[in-house]
Write a structure and sequence with these properties.
two-stranded antiparallel ribbon, 10 strands, alpha+beta
Length: 181
C-alpha cells in the first residue's frame, strides 16, 4: 500500500470457499523512520485520545502544539504538548538508557466560573484518557515499552478565576534507547 505517514486502523477480511473471516481491529502507525521519538509520542498520544471519541469534543479540537497555551483555540479543546524528559539512573545498562518522554495533556473548557456545570464530563475525559495510557504500550512507537500517568490538578484554581476549567495529565512514555550515535 502507498500511504502517507499517520495512524490508521486496519482490519483484514479473508474469503474462502468455506466462508469469510474478519481479523481483530489493529491500530498501526505508518512512519518514515526519520521522526524524533518525542514527536512520535506526541502524535501517538493525540491519535489515541482522538480514538477515544470523548463526548463533547470534536477530533479537530485535539491538537499537538509546542506549548499548552490556549491562544487561538476553540473551547473545549485538548492540547498535547512536550514536557520535561527524565532519565532513570537506576535503570540502564552499558548499551541502553531508560528515558521518559513527557507528553502534557491539557484539557480546556469555558466555565464562566460555574461551580457545577460540566464537572462530570470533565472528570470522565480525565478518567478515559488516564485509563487509555496507564501501564500500556504506545501503539506505533516501537521504542516505548510502557506509559505511566502523572496526575496534575483536577481543576486549576487560577484558570477557573479566568473563566476556564483547565486540567492536566502527564503521559510519560518510557523507552530503552541505545546509547551513542
Amino acid at each position: 500500500l502507498s500511504m502517507s505517514t499517520g495512524y490508521y486502523w486496519f482490519v483484514v477480511e479473508s474469503t474462502t470457499d468455506g466462508g469469510t473471516a474478519v481479523s481483530n481491529l489493529v491500530y498501526v502507525a505508518i512512519t518514515d523512520g526519520d521522526d524524533a521519538v518525542l514527536w512520535q509520542c506526541l502524535e501517538a498520544v493525540q491519535a489515541r485520545i482522538v480514538g477515544l471519541a470523548l463526548t463533547g469534543i470534536s477530533s479537530g479540537d485535539i491538537e499537538v502544539r509546542k506549548l499548552p497555551w490556549d491562544r487561538d483555540i476553540t473551547k473545549p479543546a485538548i492540547l498535547v504538548t512536550p514536557g520535561p524528559e527524565s532519565l532513570d539512573p537506576r535503570r540502564f545498562s552499558n548499551e541502553r538508557d531508560e528515558r521518559g518522554y513527557a507528553v502534557l495533556v491539557t484539557m480546556y473548557r469555558a466555565s464562566n466560573q460555574d461551580l457545577t456545570t460540566n464537572l462530570s464530563a470533565e472528570l470522565t475525559w480525565r478518567q478515559q484518557i488516564s485509563r487509555a495510557f496507564v501501564n500500556q504500550r504506545l501503539p506505533g512507537v516501537t521504542e516505548v515499552w510502557k506509559c505511566t500517568v502523572e496526575p496534575g490538578p483536577v481543576i486549576s484554581a487560577g484558570q477557573f478565576l479566568n473563566n476556564m476549567d483547565v486540567q492536566f495529565l502527564v503521559i510519560r512514555c518510557w523507552t530503552l534507547e541505545e546509547r551513542g550515535i
